[in-house]
Specification:
Layout lengths: L3 E4 L6 E3 L7 H12 L3 H14 L4 H9 L2 E3 L1 H13 L3 E6 L6 H8 L1 H4 L2 E4 H4 L6 H11 L6 E5 L2 H9 L3 E4 L3 H8 L6
Parallel strand pairs: 1-4, 1-6, 4-5, 6-7
Antiparallel strand pairs: 2-3
Length: about 180
């Protein structure tokens, strides 16, 4: 029986705004992100750059995340329906923790998600099996009681290795189709 549904953040829950215009700070953050696979190294570099360029960490986060917008069908239709049915909802995200307060404030994460796991805070990145196990422990469920949704196949495969059901997010309609085999929508 499915008790929890875990989402990746960027891809399934948030999408890039096609009209977004990058600024110098965002280009620098993205350049650093491409250099550091390890999000802890990236986060340390961002903090150093924030101090040397006199930008607050919050300012870096705000400017970096403005390129994302909500996928309204998920936020306005799917998440409320899942929550109403009693599913535990969570986010497991690879990335810097600098953006978490901004995402939570702007997107009302606490309204829907009982936990938010970030790789840089935990020191574990998807597709490492430990991050999925950690999510299950925090949710109080077994992996077999979870569905994991991510736009990257390698992360879905990581979740499946620990026993979760996994879906690669392609678009909203495909997600509804995939979920309908396991939950009433």
């Amino acid at each position: 029986m499915i008790k929890a549904i875990i989402f990746d953040m960027v891809g399934p829950l948030l999408q890039k705004d096609p009209n977004y215009q990058k600024n110098e700070l965002v280009e620098e953050v993205e350049s650093l992100a491409s250099m550091y696979k390890d999000t802890n190294q990236l986060e340390n570099e961002l903090k150093i750059n924030a101090r040397t360029k006199e930008f607050s960490e919050e300012e870096i986060a705000k400017r970096a995340v403005k390129k994302y917008i909500k996928i309204y069908q998920i936020w306005n239709e799917l998440l409320p329906a899942l929550k109403k049915q009693g599913f535990k909802l969570a986010v497991v995200n690879n990335g810097t923790s600098l953006t978490i307060p901004f995402f939570k404030k702007e997107n009302k994460f606490e309204e829907f998600f009982s936990i938010f796991i970030n790789s840089s805070e935990e020191g574990i990145e998807k597709p490492n099996p430990e991050i999925y196990i950690l999510a299950c422990k925090k949710l109080g469920v077994e992996p077999e009681e979870c569905i994991f949704i991510d736009d990257l196949e390698e992360n879905v495969l990581g979740a499946k290795k620990v026993g979760m059901i996994g879906f690669v997010y392609k678009d909203y309609q495909s997600l509804i189709h995939d979920l309908s085999s396991y939950v009433t929508l």
